[in-house]
Description:
The chain has 221 residues and is mostly helical. Helices cover 46% and strands 10% of the residues. The protein has ten helices and five strands, in the order E-E-E-H-H-H-E-E-H-H-H-H-H-H-H. It has a three-stranded antiparallel beta sheet, with no helix packed on it. Strands 4-5 form a two-stranded antiparallel sheet. Helix 1 (39-52) packs antiparallel against helix 3, helix 2 (83-89) packs antiparallel against helix 3 and helix 5 packs across helix 9.
Amino acid sequence: MTSALAFDARPGKSFIRWTPFGAMSCELGQGQRMCVVDTAAKEAAVARFLREYPQTGQVDDHPALLGCTDVAWSQIPGCPAGLPALLRGLLDQVAGPEALRVLDNVLLNSVFHVSPAMSAALPFLIRLAALPDMVVRSGLVDLLVVAAELSQLVDADNERQVLLLGNECDHPEREWCRAAFAAHASALRALLADETLPGGLISGADRECLLKAIEPQRYSS
């Protein structure tokens, strides 16, 4: 499912972003950043998930999550220490859908901004999305597409882009994501070439978005 965007970028006007996880509506104010998910809300969401699915915090890591416990998640600004449990939860047939919903809120600071934790999570998301028996495989692919879209370089001369997305210097997390996509380009290409990835699971536009994330020079004007 391709994410889409509809907005009126004037202050005081509303905009809506449709993502694979639902429609999110916000309002632009003068000098305000709207629809931001704060750290406390993320921590609370992860805590609720762990109470409902305690088994996700106790299982051994899957090969796709190799190295997950070595990441200092709690030292990443705005990242709950329990994020690895969400990644493990994606593998659980019962907990998977809720793990994905909470992970979406943790890895996206707002409808237009990835969180600083996104770049650290990308290698694991790519590996998990490559597993053909994943219940939430479609949602994982969608999340990768959203990450690719929101980490694209912002044109400083495009006032509309800057108004919505902010300047590059204020959002280093976009550059970190671009570096993560580049570092794991071979794994992402293998995912896109996987014959078990049904055509209905990823659209042509989404496929191009992911290819653009790992081959930006090919798409630069």
